[in-house]
């Protein structure tokens, strides 16, 4: 049996996400990237810009997961409070970072490094920087908590810098088939039996609706590629047993 993979949680922080004004684009990117590193994303929470909620959430999930990632709330405006909340969660001062502060100060014209921009260089004492190639303002790490920007392009650059530095596990492997015209309710019992035989895999059923025909995608995910292959082979036989054709891979988007 493969060694246990480390687990991760993502806290998406921001009233704008909860209100529907901003569509979060970071969850899929992080889930995919972490899976490649063998760090399955096990929980995602979307929480508001409320200090008590952020502090309590950080303290709860950093004890439950090997890695905690946060996105959002590290900009220059009054509602960007993630950094100071993380300081409170770790019970350390929120203060000018000895590297980020002079670096950011030097990047602006004299007088332009104002109080708002100074917030982006103020971090929990002991924070390690997370660099990015898009902006001079970094993210930061406190123990197993990684605080990143909410802007997708900046967050992605931070994660690309961070990824080689994250100890992971076996890559999360995925095998899939899909079938046209076979409802989930017909295959559910047999699929549940397959899941019982492969407890270390996540076996999922995902209906889709296409102009070319409706159907269901059946996916086996886990760190053992041989087990995933065996499980999806059993799913394929299950589909054949209903007189249908199992098509390898995910269904096309259109």
Folded structure, characterized:
The protein has a 6-stranded mixed beta sheet, with helices on both faces. It has a 4-stranded antiparallel beta sheet with strand order 10-11-9-12. The protein has a two-stranded antiparallel sheet with strand order 4-5. With 254 residues, it is α/β, with parallel strands linked by helices. Helices cover 36% and strands 24% of the residues. The protein has 2 domains: 8-165, MoaB/Mog-like domain (Molybdenum Cofactor Biosythetic Enzyme, Chain A); 174-248, Alpha-Beta Plaits (2-Layer Sandwich).
Which tags fit this structure?
single chain, 254 residues, alpha/beta, Molybdenum Cofactor Biosythetic Enzyme, Chain A, Alpha-Beta Plaits, six-stranded mixed β-sheet
In short:
With 254 residues, the protein is of the alpha/beta class. It contains nine helices and twelve strands.
Helix and strand topology:
Blueprint (H helix, E strand, L loop, with lengths): L7 E6 L1 H4 L7 H11 L4 E7 L3 H14 L2 E5 L10 H8 L4 E3 L3 H8 L7 H4 L3 E3 L3 E3 L8 E4 L2 E4 L3 H11 L10 E8 L3 H14 L4 E7 L6 E8 L2 H17 L5 E2 L6
Parallel strand pairs: 1-2, 1-3, 3-8
Antiparallel strand pairs: 4-5, 6-7, 7-8, 9-11, 9-12, 10-11
């Amino acid at each position: 049996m493969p060694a246990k993979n480390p687990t991760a949680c993502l806290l998406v922080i921001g009233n704008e996400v909860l209100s529907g004004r901003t569509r979060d684009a970071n969850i899929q990117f992080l889930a995919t990237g972490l899976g490649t590193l063998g760090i399955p994303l096990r929980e995602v929470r979307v929480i508001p810009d409320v200090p008590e909620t952020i502090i309590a959430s950080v303290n709860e999930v950093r004890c439950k997961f090997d890695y905690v990632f946060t996105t959002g709330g590290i900009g220059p405006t009054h509602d960007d409070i993630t950094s100071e909340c993380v300081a409170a969660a770790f019970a350390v001062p929120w203060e000018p970072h000895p590297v980020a502060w002079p670096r950011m100060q030097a990047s602006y014209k004299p007088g332009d490094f104002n109080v708002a921009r100074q917030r982006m260089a103020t971090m929990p004492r002991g924070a390690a920087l997370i660099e990015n190639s898009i902006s001079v303002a970094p993210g930061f790490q406190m123990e197993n908590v990684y605080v990143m920007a909410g802007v997708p392009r900046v967050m992605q650059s931070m994660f690309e810098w961070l990824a080689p530095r994250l100890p992971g596990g076996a890559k999360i492997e995925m095998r899939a088939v899909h079938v046209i015209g076979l409802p989930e309710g017909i295959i559910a019992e047999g699929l549940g039996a397959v899941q019982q035989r492969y407890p270390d895999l996540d076996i999922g059923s995902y209906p889709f609706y296409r102009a070319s025909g409706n159907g269901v995608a059946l996916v086996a995910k886990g760190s053992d590629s041989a087990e995933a292959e065996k499980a999806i082979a059993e799913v394929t036989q299950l589909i054949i047993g209903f007189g249908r054709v199992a098509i390898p891979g995910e269904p096309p988007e259109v």
